[in-house]
Design goal:
Blueprint (H helix, E strand, L loop, with lengths): L1 E2 L1 E3 L10 E5 L19 E5 L6 E4 L3 E2 L13 E3 L2 E9 L19 E8 L9 E4 L5 E11 L9 E9 L2 H12 L15 E9 L6 E2 L5 E2 L6 E6 L4 E10 L2 E9 L9 E4 L9 E5 L2 E4 L2 E7 L2 E4 L4 E4 L2 E3 L6 E2 L18 E4 L4 E2 L4 E9 L9 H5 L2 E8 L4 E12 L4 E2 L4 E6 L5 E6 L16 E6 L18 E15 L1
Length: 485
């Protein structure tokens, strides 16, 4: 498979390297069955990276969106921004939340909105749906399912408390037989929560499915999508372990039958003990779905404030926080987002050369008593970055590394880089005469699309099907991406 771009959200593209053990005359001995007699050996590093680190980049935040109704996830679909959300008993902010726990719900409406710029939104298209036997709606999300029959192409997923024992009795019996590691302590014979769905052929007319997809209490946050590479549905959802919020993951071969929820991201031991990971903020990088990201919201119980960090995964199962601190932080005192902020979902285009994700904020701490004015203080804005500049491979002084072999999709290299006047980057093609780092013309400045040349020559000059290894040298520099064009 040909590679068009390398992004640096983790170490997946870099070789670890090794040591070669050499005799005084330079002969290399392997670890197995070296010749007798034993002689002194010295170590020589081979392609071991040095002097490099990863650094997540803080976003630039916009002002709040006027007349925000409470939607969280926003997708880019056919040249427009689109979102769907619940309106419960005429209330939409926060998507549902505690206002949706009024018993019983008098009206349940799915609303759809669109925008061409992310700020001016259409009037909502409302579709009342008939729901019986559950209440307390929360944790909503939606997605467009490429594998579904036409009548179910659009899917709206939410959590609710089940009040009709006829709905949950049989699934609960099976649920309680599972090993405790696959159960949530918030579900019992007296209190059952389920993940439910509504489906639509066009995103306008919706029909609620009567049976729960699974028993699980995903209050506040859920992500569901069809993973075409796996050929399965995937859900990232809220978990509670040890009285802390974690991020869990489940899979399903078909949309209506899900496996157990298992943890994939939780507060680290070098985080303070009052931290929760409150929202997952899952996203694929636009145009390059191999880069799976999360914008998890970290909640601090000592202050009831929060911030959004960046996490990365190559398989959707093993997740790591990217160093560099928060990528979205609360605003200054008095700002509309000065106390508690929440991450949205999905990176989307945001004008020429930009990518963005929605985020929400309020000037009140999270558990501040929620008078109507406190609810209404919630608003949404956008957090944006220059294209590809979400994370940097950075050398504070001298750094060097080698990539794993890749088959390039083009014959030229372009770098997205940033250096001070004294910094520079050089790139070589390992083993290719005339294209070594010594031949590379120095690259420096703040340049999002810098062509790499070797003594003035821009072409890599290898066969189209031949893989290559890049040798990178950085001095006081940040490298955001490498493109093959």
């Amino acid at each position: 498979m040909k590679t068009s771009k390398l992004l640096f959200f983790d170490w997946r593209h870099l070789q670890c390297g090794n040591l070669a053990w050499l005799t005084p005359d330079g002969t290399r001995h392997s670890v197995s069955r070296p010749p007798e007699p034993q002689v002194p050996m010295r170590a020589e590093p081979r392609k071991i990276p040095r002097g490099l680190r990863l650094e997540a980049q803080p976003a630039t935040k916009t002002d709040k969106v006027d007349d925000w109704k409470g939607w969280g996830r926003t997708i880019w679909d056919q040249g427009r921004y689109r979102s769907w959300y619940f309106e419960i008993n005429g209330h939409a902010k926060l998507g549902s939340g505690a206002r949706a726990h009024d018993q019983p719900p008098e009206s349940v409406v799915i609303c759809g909105v669109e925008s061409t710029d992310g700020f001016a939104w259409s009037a909502p298209r409302r579709c009342p749906i008939q729901i019986a036997g559950h209440e307390g709606f929360d944790g909503l999300t939606f997605f467009i399912d490429p594998a579904a029959p036409p009548a179910q192409r659009y899917k709206f997923v939410y959590c609710a408390r089940i009040t009709d024992e006829r709905i949950y009795a049989k699934p609960l019996e099976a649920y309680l037989k599972q090993h405790p590691r696959y159960r949530d302590s918030r579900i019992s014979a007296q209190r059952a929560y389920g993940m439910f769905a509504a489906v639509s052929p066009n995103g306008v007319q919706w029909t609620a499915l009567p049976e729960p997809l699974m028993l699980h209490p995903s209050d506040t946050d859920t992500t569901v999508f069809r993973d075409e590479e796996l050929g399965r549905y995937v859900m990232y959802t809220r978990m509670m372990r040890e009285d802390r919020r974690w991020v869990g993951r489940a899979e399903a071969e078909d949309f209506e039958h899900w496996g157990p929820v298992e943890p994939v991201l939780w507060p680290r031991l070098d985080d303070p003990p009052d931290y929760d990971i409150y929202l997952n903020g899952y996203s694929r990088y636009p145009g390059h779905p191999a880069y799976q990201l999360m914008f998890p919201m970290y909640y601090f119980r000592a202050t009831e404030r929060s911030e959004v960090r960046l996490c990365s995964s190559s398989d959707g199962l093993a997740w790591n926080q990217v160093p560099g601190g928060p990528v979205i932080a609360p605003g200054p005192p008095g700002a509309w987002d000065s106390e508690f902020i929440g991450s949205g979902k999905d990176l989307v285009p945001f004008g020429p050369g930009r990518i963005a994700t929605p985020y929400s904020g309020t000037p009140y701490p999270h558990k501040y008593p929620r008078w109507p004015a406190v609810w209404d203080a919630w608003n949404q804005g956008w957090a944006w970055w220059p294209e590809d500049r979400l994370c940097a491979l950075k050398a504070d002084q001298e750094g060097e590394c080698w990539t794993l072999p890749v088959t390039p999709a083009g014959r030229q290299l372009r770098l997205n880089l940033r250096t001070p006047s004294a910094g520079l980057i050089r790139v070589g093609v390992e083993g290719l005469a005339g294209r070594t780092v010594e031949d590379c013309d120095p690259l420096w400045g703040d340049r999002p699309d810098q062509l790499v040349t070797w003594k003035g020559q821009p072409n890599i000059d290898i066969a189209e099907t031949q893989p290559l290894t890049l040798h990178l040298q950085l001095r006081c520099a940040e490298l955001f991406s490498i493109s093959f064009v």
